[in-house]
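Notes to self, Glucan 1,6-alpha-glucosidase:
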Amino acid sequence: RSEKNWWHSATVYQIYPRSFFDSNGDGIGDLRGITLHLDYLKKLGIGLIWLSPIFKSPMDDNGYDISDYQDIAAEFGTLRDFEELLEEARKRDIGILLDLVVNHTSDEHPWFMEARKSEDNPFRNFYIWRDPDQDGGPPNSLQSSFGGPAWSYEPATGQYYFHQFSRRQPDLNWDNPEVRCEIYNMMNWWLDKGIAGFRMDVIDRIAKEVDSEITADGPRLHEYLQEMHRETLAERNVLTVGEAWSATPGSALLYCGEDRNELSMVFQFEHVTQQWDQLYGKWRSKPFDLVALKSVLGKWQHALANDGWNSLFWGNHDLPRVVSNYGDTAGYHRESATMLATALHLLKGTPFIYQGEEIGMTNAVFQRIEQYRDVETLNMHRLHIEAGLSVEEFIAGANRNSRDNARTPMQWNSAPHGGFTTGTPWIESNPNYPQINVNQNLRDDRSIWNHYRRLIALRKSEPVIVYGTYQGYFDQHPNLYVYTRTLGTRRVVIIANFTAESVTFTVPNELRGRGRCLISNYENIKELESGVTMRPFEAFAVLQQI
Ligand code: TEU
Ligand code: CA
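result:
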């Protein structure tokens, strides 16, 4: 980690600790469960782990509601367990990114417990309070991301407090310099322990101006991020990735431009939201549209081609499983999962793998609302049913896009609950664990896991994959994603069939010729002739000298 942009050739693996591995049989994944599997991750080849929140929390939002930033949730372990994990990871050259959740705290954070007591409490101004409107209702119509008003009434003082997520996640007031100072001290405390950086939760939402109804991308956002950089990150060679649903190709460079001194990169979600309904969002998503997807991916490749840096991801703990969302889990599970990995990992940027993606885990198959655990899904269920949606319709939407799809336990082997726990898991395992699990993947050289391992290794051995210039072809083709990456005299041609149909196409003159196949999910191809037939979900990359 001594070189400046050491993370350019690394691949990050996201762990959702609650669902990764339970080491003590209480049904909840924990830190020791992660430490026990570091060799597994080392074999895969990843350079960094992003740990979803591990801090003390009442778990209203599975840890995205923190009640003590400098302690570990008891169900996950202790600070000692964390230090052991950090040390064991370091021995294997794996860095740890912590999840920095500082847009809000838990309502059980001591700051909020104080703040809610009285208007003159010293912590009052750590949060955002407003008087009711004339009718006693919320001060304005801002809505929470999890449904319902973004304001909750606090009877003790007769005011409302602001929360962009659940009512148990009050928003911090970043305009208060004391708040910022506390956060920077806390960040330095973790950085001094030797973590490799932070993933920053909803970082685009910290600088809100609630009276003007501005929540994302507020006017002081970049001032705060530059201050944060000065106070914590400068002089440390760490990686930071900010979650920014509002980021556009234009605004992204403000976060991650080389001379900005803010973040290394952002997660942007345009490829995710282009699939959602204008009105109902993800609860009613549109059919898959490859042309639209390619256009978004290409746009971002160009936008950050010469400055800034892209993050590359298909999924995370908030999104459906990639193979369920864009692939074919029935007939072409292995082919589509490996095709999707190929298409993403050979783009320019830093790839993020969400736990279980490397073995092709699929969406949950819940039939009843009682099987869901996610606060967002449960809130939305209540609101949509009140608004007249049928239970069947809601469950159909949730089956596609509920956040719980990605949160079922990691499938290690064919033992009960996929070997995740010897107890009862906090959320039901996907019943397909006898077929889809780590053991079965490790045994088979052609498995999804081995394909991911090869992609991760390629990024480390081929500079053209890290730095090559991107160019897309056949933008309007409804089945194929074709692009090249070029660096000096080396060019990689990537061709991926996103459909279950066989597709024959004419290779453009300039791309024809012999080469070395870097990776393929059928058999290796040595030459791009004038016509190429792509089988269902076939994908390969050919390295050519030009
Ligand atoms: O997510 C932010 C966020 O906007 C999503 O939860 C979004 O609302 C949802 O996926 C779209 O319907 C981050 C975390 O990743 C998420 O897990 C947390 O719940 C949220 O912030 C609050 O901390
Ligand atoms: Ca446990």
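- Residues 110-162 form a domain with the Oligo-1,6-glucosidase; domain 2 fold (CATH 3.90.400.10).
- The longest helix spans residues 177-192.
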